[in-house]
Write a structure and sequence with these properties.
By secondary structure, the protein is α/β, with parallel strands linked by helices. It is built from 15 helices and 16 strands.
Length: about 425
């Protein structure tokens, strides 16, 4: 059967992976693609051209996840293998410059701009949205940020509205956005690229022009019809990417102090105070924001926990158990508690401070779903593990939400996935 080859070098490791994957496919694959470090295989399509396009789409996803892996596509389902290497930071900023100019042109051609992050937005999503908002306003366009009332952002929003009252009319609900979006509206999505994880899927469906700015490894349910995509998995945060765009726009963008602080907070949160996933460009972005007048002490206060939350986190850490010698798993067993996701995330971070713990997972009950926060110091890819439970993220930071199962069932499923992970790499 005919095969279409992409690329000129076939890495021996990928050759072995391809041989293993081919055995899993029935019927046998019709087309596969090869890059320097990745392989994609697909048997979808009526003819060779369709199969080539299917394999190329799969390859785009692989490269959007950082490369160093193989993927098979069968019956609209993707299966990933490998992808455990750390992402390599890109030294050139050519793409950032090109994207900045393209984003400017798209904003100029639109009647208004709507900006949206992911569900239950964090400070990275909010800070990135504010950065894009300031670009749009500098170009003389009306812009709005779609957000929801999230306890994790309560302290920040109070500071934002106190210092800049204009945001009273800028922050809108998804219901208002769904009513007012039209064909000439530019929708900018930050800190996510997944159709199922945006603040409003209805807004995405109605939008005709979409820009995606994200730093997560690409998932199979990514937004395919985006006009412009700036997805760099090496970046520490979406705030880092937006900060680079701010520096390369033709229009002179003057960030207000609280806006610079929101972007700085986004970088600070996703890097755990500049500890994980930081590169030269991360510090360059932080330096730019510092020159804009960032008050580091004020930003630090946004991350403080009250005494009650701190005691809860301490109890979660105390109850943790160790599996596979170095992975900590803990459960927050209070159902429908306030700030479940935030507490689980902080507890997972705290578990990494324990000697010999290389990865941590904390499970919480939101009422209708079981949320999982995964963290790693880099030796273990928590994204690969949680992806098998419907989640995603990065090598060092990932999350998932599971429906239709109890906490104990999810915990056992998680342990099974962890065992699979170690079996695959052994």
């Amino acid at each position: 059967k005919s095969l279409s080859l992409i690329g000129q070098e076939y890495n021996s490791l990928m050759a072995e992976a391809t041989a293993d994957i081919v055995e899993l496919l029935e019927p046998k694959p019709q087309c596969f693609g090869i890059s320097l470090s990745s392989t994609s295989i697909s048997n979808e399509g009526k003819n060779d051209k369709d199969k080539y396009k299917s394999a190329q789409t799969a390859m785009d996803i692989v490269l959007g996840r950082g490369g160093d892996q193989a993927v098979i596509r069968q019956n609209d389902i993707y299966k990933f293998f490998g992808g455990r290497a750390q992402e390599v930071e890109k030294r050139t900023k050519v793409k950032a410059r090109v994207v900045a100019h393209a984003l400017e042109n798209l904003i100029k051609e639109s009647s208004k701009v709507m900006i949206m992050g992911h569900m239950n937005p964090d400070i990275d999503a909010m800070g990135s949205s504010i950065g894009v908002y300031r670009i749009a306003k500098s170009l003389g366009k009306n812009a709005y940020i779609i957000t929801s009332n999230t306890p994790t952002l309560q302290s920040f929003k109070e500071s934002l509205l106190a210092e800049e009252p204009e945001y009273e009319d800028v922050l809108i609900s998804k219901e208002v956005a769904e009513e007012n979006i039209d064909e000439d509206t530019l929708l900018v999505i930050v800190d996510t690229h997944k159709n199922t994880y945006v603040e409003s899927e209805e807004v995405v469906k109605k939008a005709k022009k979409i820009v995606v700015i994200d730093h997560h490894r690409r998932s199979a349910d990514y937004i395919e019809d985006a006009t412009l995509t700036f997805q760099e998995v090496y970046a520490s945060s979406a705030a880092e990417l937006v900060t680079e765009l701010l520096q390369y726009t033709d229009v002179n963008v003057e960030l207000k102090k609280i806006e610079a602080e929101s972007l700085y907070a986004g970088i600070m949160m996703d890097t755990k105070s500049f500890t994980f996933k930081t590169g030269v460009r991360t510090f360059e972005a932080a330096a730019y924001l510092r020159r804009c007048g960032v008050d580091i002490i004020k930003v630090k206060k946004w991350f403080q926990s009250d005494l009650q939350s701190f005691n809860i986190i301490a109890d979660i850490v105390k109850s943790a158990e160790i599996v596979n010698e170095s992975i900590a798993i803990a459960i927050y067993d209070k159902e429908k508690a306030k700030d479940v996701s935030l507490i689980c995330a902080k507890a997972a971070d705290e578990l990494l401070t324990i000697n010999d713990v290389t990865a941590s997972f904390v499970l919480g009950n939101t009422g209708d779903k079981i949320c999982i926060s995964g963290r790693s110091i880099g030796d273990i890819n928590v994204q690969v593990i949680l992806e098998k439970l419907g989640g995603g993220g990065h090598i060092t930071l990932a999350g998932a939400q599971v429906e239709g199962m109890t906490q104990e069932e999810v915990k056992q499923e998680l342990i099974n996935r962890i065992n699979e992970y170690f079996t695959e790499i052994s």
